[in-house]
Amino acid sequence: MTGAKVLLMMGCPEIPIQTSIALYLSHKLTNLGFDVTVAGTEAATRLLKVSDSDGYYAKKLVNLDKTMEDIIEKRSDFDICFAFMHNDAGMTYAATMSALSQAKLYSIVFGRHADELAETIEFDGEKIVSKDVHNPLRLKNRLDKIVEGIAI
User: Fold this and answer.
1) CA distances from 129 to 56, 72, 110 (A)
2) Which domains are present in the chain?
3) 69: which residues sit within 8 A by CB, 6+ positions away?
4) Element (H or E) spanning 110, and its range?
5) pLDDT at 90
6) In the Cβ-directed half-sphere of 132, how many Cα atoms lie within 13 Å?
7) Of the four, 27, 64, 82, 117, which is 20 to 30 A from 96 by CA?
């Protein structure tokens, strides 16, 4: 699937590990030859711009609502989507992608209430669940295994 278009969707950046995992995943997938777009809320993209001011890790950083509008209007789509979620708003974005996009969906559910939130997901896609808030290593290791599988 090298060369595939990948969307990383970030909602509210309230949980610290979201920013580091998004930067890590964007960089890893880009290095494997994927065409990666990182879409986030205004707050999430500001954090990424400060953390990666030269755009080294997140080469394409765009507004999440504009990206969703483009998908709804059929102006763009993706092959793979990693949807970050730690609350109902993040799940709503992922559910919208599931309904409107042909992308293979990976729901990255994280934070203190990750298990409970993951249980309420009613759309198709693979769930990556981690109760972590501050330490990104467990989630990183799970994502590494998934990336290994899609990079073939």
Assistant:
1) 27, 27, 6
2) 5-147 (3.40.50.10160)
3) none
4) strand 104-110
5) 92
6) 19
7) 27
